[in-house]
Amino acid sequence: MAIPPVLSDPRFSDLPARLQSVHARMDEACALYGRPAGTVQLLCVSKTQPAAAIRAAHALGERHFGENYVQEALDKMTELADLQPPPIWHLIGPLQANKTRVVAEAFDWVHSVDRLRIAERLSNQRPAERAPLQVCLQVNISGEDSKHGVSPQDCLDLANSVAALPRLRLRGLMAIPAPAEGFEAQRQAHRQLAALMHALNTQGLQLDTLSMGMSADLEAAVAEGAHWVRIGTALFGARPG
Ligand SMILES: *Cc1c(COP(=O)(O)O)cnc(C)c1O
């Protein structure tokens, strides 16, 4: 098979090794913590990286890409419209009400829903011909003032409301814990998110997805049950700008 030209671009010469190393970290953590193979998926976080970086990761077999900024993501989608199979697009950044329509039209997943008004708009605006939008609720698991996310206390009410929206499929919870020193400290926030999802499920919800773990705490997240790890720096290197 011909090597796609983007893989001879010197900007991405490290990508094959970095990708292999991230998959090895995931596989080793799964083996160590008793997670069946294939239960953790890689979301390649491509924010601020050029569209060509996504093209390169796609050529190496990756399909799921996470973006934080709506307009930047839409520009990349246009530039990458020729990719087959098409990339699966995940919004992982904060979402303003005035951007919900384009997000409902263009994305497959939104991990960062943290209030009902946004969820209602996404449901109303999801095109009829597309599958329901997959969503996670972003939880402010570390209780930081500055962070987006619903509080753990308010999560059940929000989850019940979002689960009832016809054009969304509520899949689970997402968190960006405060940075923590050391493996045990990292595990704690992830364990809290997993416990919260379990608690919601005992209240009648049917959630199956924990979106947690980034470059620095992937193993701790896998140990506590992550289904998506969202990896940027470890794949693409330091972000430009
Ligand atoms: C940037 C970002 C990531 C990736 O972080 P890295 O440390 O570069 O792996 C994951 N999740 C969210 C929500 C982000 O904004």
TrEMBL record:
Keywords: Pyridoxal phosphate
Entries under InterPro entries matching the protein: Ala_racemase_N, PLP-binding_barrel, PyrdxlP_homeostasis
Bilayer-crossing regions: none
Residue(s) carrying N6-(pyridoxal phosphate)lysine: K47
Domain of life (superkingdom): Bacteria
Cofactor: pyridoxal 5'-phosphate
Residues covered by the Alanine racemase N-terminal domain: 38-240
Pfam family, one: Ala_racemase_N
Keyword S-adenosyl-L-methionine: no
GO molecular function ontology, one term from the record: pyridoxal phosphate binding
Entry function: Pyridoxal 5'-phosphate (PLP)-binding protein, which is involved in PLP homeostasis.
Family, as annotated: Belongs to the pyridoxal phosphate-binding protein YggS/PROSC family.
HAMAP family: PLP_homeostasis
NCBIfam families the record matches: YggS family pyridoxal phosphate-dependent enzyme
The protein's name: Pyridoxal phosphate homeostasis protein
Originating organism: Inhella proteolytica
Biological classification of the source: Bacteria, Pseudomonadati, Pseudomonadota, Betaproteobacteria, Burkholderiales
